[in-house]
Amino acid sequence: MASNNTKNTGLLIMVASLGYFVDIYDLIIFSIVRVRSFHDIGVPDDLMRVKGEFVLNMQMGGLLLGGLIWGVIADKYGRIKVLFGSILLYSLANIYNGFVHDVTTYGMVRFIAGVGLAGELGAGITLVSESMHRSKRGYGTMLVAGVGVLGAILAYFVSEWFDWRTAYFVGGGMGIVLLLMRIGTFESGLFAQSVEDSHIQKGSLKLLFSNRDRFKRYVYCLCIGLPIWFVVGVLVTQAPEIGKALGAKDVLSAGKGVMFTYLGISVGDFLAGLLAQWLKSRKKVVFVCQILILISSLWYLNSTGIGEDKFMFLAFFMGLGVGYWATFVTISAEQFGTNLRATVATTAPNFVRGALIPSTLLYGYLVDLWGIIVAAIVTLVLLTGIAIFALTQLEESFDKDLDYYEE
User: What cellular-component terms does GO give this entry (predicted)?
Assistant: First the structure.
């Protein structure tokens, strides 16, 4: 029986890892092909940053809405249903994305893709966390994220080998193939047990927001992830514009930057997971990562005349810092009972992704006041400060028993 359980858990980890691999590919492909695709559909150079922020924010808005939808579905009807429904939606959206010819349609399709992408990571992390022993679950979530973020590497090479439209087709096609592979996966035992307890309220947003202490706990979970997407979505994605402001001799490649950043995130996720198991603390690991984010990002933003080699190194270094992504989602999942766990684990990463909207709005406002470099530094320091404060307000969740409900 133990051998069979181990085999089933291994299958879940593999399916969740591959799902996150495709999720990351589809999530960041726009950042990689932004300039090339915009040139192809006629966006002038002076509107690249503004139109890029519009499309990216549409995708992030979809992630916000999708996080709510899929989180509630996962707690009410099961984690497996989300893993099937979300991948079907974002795969079809990415295939359609290969046919767009204007920025408005581009943004609308990325919004739909965002809704689909919102369900993948949270449901996968919840399913793996609930299926593993409490002292070992950090290894499972580490593998899911560490393997998953390598999808960014494939996204870069596909964008180099093929045109931007084909890159979207490849992402959608991989999702359809993975959808077929998921047939036969099993549901979480803790969720199955909650179904039998019919009196328990499951997947209720009212339950999440009606209790002050529970709501504060949720907000603190969101805040610890704030710097992650600013680094990826602004500092790396806008590398051509930031490089110009730094006096770079050559145009910095956002595509290569994203690839090296995600390579760093993959390594960082493995290191963060191992360090958390060694220290028996997820909070200490997240704090170390916040310091790494500050050091690497400030180094990057003060690198006058930066060259491509140094940019790639710093992109990898920044990736190591934001490589606590899986640890952040795991902390969020561990802070809440079974009847709210998937709702939190699904909405938290997507609300953090969606928080890029106000972050870029603040950043854009500061750019007009102080220029792109000072604006980036101020925004980064503010977001990191908020994250560190929120971290101090959360309880340590390592080795916490997850078999309980929120009342």
Answer: plasma membrane
User: How does pLDDT run across 145-169, given as a tens digit for each residue?
Assistant: 777 777 878 888 898 899 889 999 9
CA-to-CA distance for 116 and 132, rounded, in angstroms?
Answer: 26
Structural contact between residues 384 and 243, judged by C-beta atoms closer than 8 angstroms: no
Q: Residue 197: which region, alpha, beta or left (left: phi > 0; alpha: psi -120 to 50)?
A: beta
DSSP state of 336: S
Range of the structural domain that residue 97 is part of? 2-185+205-393
Flag whether 63 is in a domain: yes
**pTM of the complete model:** 0.76
Q: Please enumerate in sequence order all residues whose Cβ is within 8 A of that of 150, keeping only pairs 6 or more positions apart, or say none.
A: 21, 24, 262, 263, 266
State pLDDT tens for residues 296-313. Answer: 999 999 999 999 899 999
Kindly give the parts of the chain with pLDDT less than 50.
1-4
**Which CATH number fits the domain that encloses residue 255?**
1.20.1250.20
